[in-house]
């Protein structure tokens, strides 16, 4: 009886893991130094940028995204795990995008404080995206 229960549990976990793996899972991570991104329709990719929201600065998309070509799926901040608990330590923002249809688009991002209206970003990043 125990053996059958364990086998059933292994099968359930295997099916759950397989269901979580799909063709839209992120395949590549790009950084600020990458200026060209190529992905397929339905394929996700990540833009990872250094960030420190404790200073009030965050990354935002500063242009109108061509959502017929590429769409934003989510963004998340991840604190630096080696400096966990250190006041003022930064981390990274991970922005996940997905190719929608064949074409080209530009993603322009700015690192700024949301409460400083009319002040240009202290950093910018521009990515030329080609969806095959």
List keywords for this structure.
single chain, 132 residues, mainly beta, Immunoglobulin-like, four-stranded mixed beta sheet, 1 helix, 14% helix, 44% strand, globular
Structure description:
By secondary structure, this protein is mainly beta. The chain has a single domain (about 25-130), classed as Sandwich (Immunoglobulin-like), CATH 2.60.40.2020. The protein has one helix at about 1-20; strands at about 30, 35-40, 45-50, 55-60, 70-80, 90-100, 105-115, 125-130. The strands form two sheets. It has a four-stranded mixed beta sheet with strand order 1-3-6-5, with no helix packed on it. The chain is globular.
Number of helices: 1
Percent helix range: 10-25%
The oligomerization state is: single chain
Distance between the amino and carboxyl termini: 52 Å
Main sheet: strands, sense, barrel: 4 strands, mixed
Secondary structure blueprint with pairings:
Blueprint: H1 2-20, E1 29-30, E2 36-39, E3 44-51, E4 57-61, E5 70-79, E6 91-99, E7 103-113, E8 123-131
Parallel strand pairs: 1-3, 2-8
Antiparallel strand pairs: 3-6, 4-7, 5-6, 7-8
């Amino acid at each position: 009886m125990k053996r059958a229960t364990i086998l059933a549990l292994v099968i359930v976990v295997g099916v759950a893991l397989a269901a979580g793996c799909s063709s839209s899972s992120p395949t590549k991570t790009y950084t600020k130094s990458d200026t060209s991104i190529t992905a397929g329709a339905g394929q996700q990719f990540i833009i990872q940028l250094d960030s420190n929201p404790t200073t009030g600065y965050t990354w935002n998309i500063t242009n109108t995204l061509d959502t017929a070509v590429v769409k934003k799926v989510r963004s998340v901040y991840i604190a630096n795990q080696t400096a966990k608990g250190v006041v003022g330590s930064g981390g990274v923002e991970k922005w996940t995008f997905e190719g929608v249809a064949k074409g080209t688009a530009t993603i322009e991002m700015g690192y700024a404080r949301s409460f400083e209206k009319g002040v240009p970003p202290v950093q910018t990043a521009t990515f030329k995206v080609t969806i095959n």
